[in-house]
Design a protein that fits this description.
It contains 7 helices and 8 strands, in the order ααβββββββαααβαα. The chain is of the alpha+beta class. It has 3 domains: 101 residues, no CATH class; 105 residues, 2-Layer Sandwich (Tetrahydropterin Synthase, Chain A), CATH 3.30.479.30; 61 residues. Strand 2 and strand 3 form a beta hairpin. The longest helix has 50 residues. It is rod-shaped. It starts with 9 loop residues before the first helix and ends in a 24-residue tail after the last helix.
Length: 307
């Protein structure tokens, strides 16, 4: 049976305990009354009734329940006894011992702008989220050393120091490329630091990593310079290609002139006429001239025959 799931209504338990105590006290008074008087109890009956009432009032004070996800530290007159109470019902010595519950569930804290310096002396800032829990078997040590001030007294300083130690082994330009390696090293370092205090590390994540303004500006200028260099290389290749085209075009024109010079004059004239007619045909809109009866583009016009 899982006692951590048992419903415990402490006010109801106390009510029924008191009711039972008063009932036992009434029975004790009735059974020990004097024989010569109906309502006159004996001294022993009064003492027995008082003891029954006191017992039923004090007894429920030692009963309690540890909530799921917690562990109970037993204190005797305010000092830890070293006893740990697990989830579920418990009973301690009433009035002398109390149980202080310590949360052992996963908790998360956020640390903004944790500062560190890289190997090349460049400052780096990180926003970190740390998930941790109290180790159940060490709740007594945690309570003795830290009470409930885990974050302020241990976690924040440990995270800051672990970040500084880890990031100092890398250069600023390698942080993005080696981020998984950096987070693994940071997790290992921080887990070792927290384990000393009885705290377990569940996860650590970076929500944002920032550089200084000067470094960001220098990085942007470097990217712009690289882009300009690539653009210049592309322009150079384009100019070279256009120059090669011009050379080829000039060679073609020279070759065409050489061929034209080798032809007879009459053949050159005929080729020019054909070229002019081709151009005229390309520009013709398909309508015949109204002022002449000839057909254009075919040299001499055809005159109409006389009747």
């Amino acid at each position: 049976m899982d006692l951590s799931q048992v419903a415990v209504d402490m006010p109801a338990i106390r009510f029924w305990a008191w009711a039972l105590g008063y009932a036992l006290a009434a029975i004790a008074l009735w059974t020990t009354r004097r024989r010569d008087s109906f309502l006159r109890p004996t001294l022993f009956g009064v003492a027995l009734a008082a003891a029954a009432i006191a017992f039923t009032i004090v007894w429920p004070q030692g009963l309690g329940r540890v909530q799921p996800g917690d562990r109970g530290v037993v204190l005797r007159f305010g000092a830890p006894t070293g006893r740990i109470v697990k989830e579920g019902l418990y009973y301690v010595v009433p009035l002398a011992e109390v149980v202080l519950q310590v949360n052992t569930q996963i908790n998360t804290i956020k640390l903004d702008r944790a500062q560190g310096t890289c190997r090349d002396l460049e400052p780096v800032y990180a926003d970190l989220a740390v998930s941790f829990h109290v180790i159940p078997s060490r709740v007594v040590d945690v309570y003795r050393r830290l009470r409930f001030d885990y974050a302020e007294r241990v976690i924040y300083p440990s995270v800051q120091d672990a970040w500084k130690t880890t990031i100092a082994s890398y250069e600023a330009g390698d942080i993005v490329a080696k981020r998984p390696e950096i987070m693994t090293a940071l997790r290992t370092d921080l887990a070792a630091r927290l384990a000393v205090y009885g705290l377990g590390l569940d996860a650590i994540n970076t929500t944002r990593i920032n550089y200084s303004y000067a470094y960001q500006q220098a990085a942007q200028d470097k990217v712009a310079a690289v882009q300009h260099t690539l653009q210049a290389q592309q322009d150079l290749q384009r100019i070279r290609f256009e120059s090669q085209q011009s050379v080829i075009r000039a060679k073609s024109e020279v070759e065409a002139l050489r061929l034209q010079r080798s032809l007879p004059v009459g053949e050159i004239v005929r080729l020019k006429e054909l070229d002019l007619q081709r151009r005229a045909i390309d520009k013709w809109d398909g309508r015949l001239p109204q002022s002449t009866g000839g057909i254009p583009f075919f040299g001499q016009q055809l005159a109409p025959h006389a009747d």
